[in-house]
Amino acid sequence: MSRPVRLVVAGVLAVAIALTVVATVRLAQRASGAVVASVGSYELTEGRLEEILEAVDGNMLHQQARERMGAPGSAQTADGEWDPGFVAEVVTSEINFELARVALDDLGGEISAPDRQGARRTLEAFMGEATELVSGGERADVLLSQYGDYGERLDDGLSAQRAVQRVAMARADRDAEVAGVFAEMEPPVEVLCASWVAIELDEEALDEEVVEEVVEEEEPDEDVVGEEALEEDPFAGVAVDPASRDALAGLRAAVVDGADLADEAPRRGLDPVSSACAIEDELDPEVAAVASMLAEGEISEITPMLGGFAVVLLDERRPAEIDEAASVVAYLLDEVVPGQLLDATLRRTADEVEVWVDSSIGRWDPEDLRVVPPAEVGEGFELLPEEESPVVEGPVVEGPVVGEPDAGRRDEGTEDQ
Fold first, then answer.
1. pLDDT tens digits, one per residue of 213-252
2. How far apart are CA 55 and CA 401, in angstroms?
3. In what order do the strands lie in the sheet with 308-319?
4. Is 404 among the domain residues?
5. What is the domain extent for residue 245?
């Protein structure tokens, strides 16, 4: 063996011995319960985890958010035990915050002011209605202050994730990324081509209560009109011109028998047919709601809509081309793609550094970037099955935890490109 080779081998052995010593020390710490999770050199101790759990659980706005989700206000039981799902989510946040910081260093990036602003919008969006109760300054600032010392780490972690998204987006082929996501969307984006004819209500002739129900809530109130009357006649209790009412009913019947809607409407003295051809999100919301439920060539029942009554005919339903779906493309570009790039970056980082979680907390899922909590079954433990993900997957942006599995863990993307 040559001298250079011996030196290389000696160096490798020295590194191996050093790593063995470090691993032994960490195992000893874990056996003592001092460390419950680690990411590379970062270690989350039992004491620090307890501080974070108390900070999050003690936040009044968090308690209200949990209650709105149907969970108890506190994640701590009467005997002082923490809900396992709540603990797993807190540890998930800590791990992903640390992965984001490591990834950002590897990318050579830094947290910018827009990153912090985006992180705070994420926090406010996550807390939803609870932030409406915050006054006396910026909602996110007040909310973060209620976490005490943990607020700074939460702010830094969310900001690091935003920064990773921004840097990854700057280096990506955006058009290719969007096209790839668009092609794989399930269900696929569809173009709906619809035609409709409407008649208006004679509001002056209506009882005020009926007007409110029909015009503002878009359907008559059974208590006002009567359920049986509505089943027999969709115009029951509603003042419309009798000729227009009969014409619309006759129009629908004629189209069902094969007549052409555009030809038949003016023949019956109705307004000209309106039509549109677009993806559902870009159609009139009322028209889209009816048209999306129809088969191609089908005409709807007479439906309260558009400030009166209408029938809608679905002329065509087909998969959309990407250039026909501007609103979807904008959503993918602003929300989904940045998050998927973040996911991919954090997964690569997790592969390069050791992520460890004590089995009492749960199991680290490297694909989903989360801690799967244990559930006590009989005398032992078994891992909870993973919940089904939404059809369109969003990006991972760690948020505060309210105690439901995956709650607050995913927020779809960033506006700071």
1. 444 444 444 443 334 444 455 555 555 667 788 899 999 9
2. 11
3. 274-279, 190-200, 308-319, 303-305
4. no
5. 190-319
